[in-house]
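User: Please predict the structure of the protein below. I'd like the answer in structure-token form so I can feed it into my own downstream comparison script.

Assistant: Understood. Taking the following sequence of 293 residues as input:
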Amino acid sequence: MENKKNIMLVPIDFSEISINALQHAAQVAKHFNNDLVLLSILEEDFLSNIFSFSKNETKDNLAKEAMMNRLKSKADEIKQTYGIHCKTEVRSGKIYKTIIETAEEFGCDCIIMGTHGASGVERVIGSNASKVISYSSTPVIVVKTDKNPNAYKNIVFPLDLSKESKQKVKWALHLSKAYQSTIHILTYKIGDEFLNIKMNANIKQIENIFDENGVKHTTTILEDDDDFARKTLEFAETQLADLIIIMTQQESDKSIREYIIETYAQQIVNDTGNVPIFCVSPHYEMFKSEFVI
């Protein structure tokens, strides 16, 4: 019996950055022999605008059909270039909610998307990246440029004292084994002696895990945590990093209308750097399944 392939979701608005994200996803999918779901979304207010504010099922279907034709053309290109099977979906609704709902429906193991989208007819995908990251329990890889991931050879692993921070180890191990990567642990000294001892214990624990799994790694300890986001990005550039793995923070109050990414993650995601960001949502009852991208 053939094992079920893992699936990655790629939202596409046909802007340059979303096509970059598609190329990125295709290379990763080829490495892991995964399938892709290509998703384009037409927002209801957008449909109303292009059809003179009148809602008509026939006109809606025509718009979706035109979008599907473009999407299938991209799927064919990916199939021919990478040999990757792509399922195509065109849906209407709020972009970030539709992305998350689609990822859950298909049981996707990862969402790969750009940070900046187009305006006008080509709807904005990228501006919704922060909302997707905040709401989604599915890991999200944020692609910022057209830099192609020949491999995730150098992975930056920022570490702080939060209990969630160590949850990234699972993904770091998986990727490092698949690509024979070096994991670059990055952390900082803490003025409080007790907390600094705790930090050092965390570092040692993670180093031991990497050693036990035969993962190459380095450790860099900054003098302080001042502007840790900026220093993380600078460090990633100096290490010629292919990926930065970060944790995101979700609000627990479900009555809050919008989820908010913790400040550090927000800065990392929104910065105009070149390194893709792998965003992991914290799970307080461990993980629901093994992550294989």
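That's the full token string. Confidence is low (pLDDT under 50) at residues 117-124, 250-261, 284-293.
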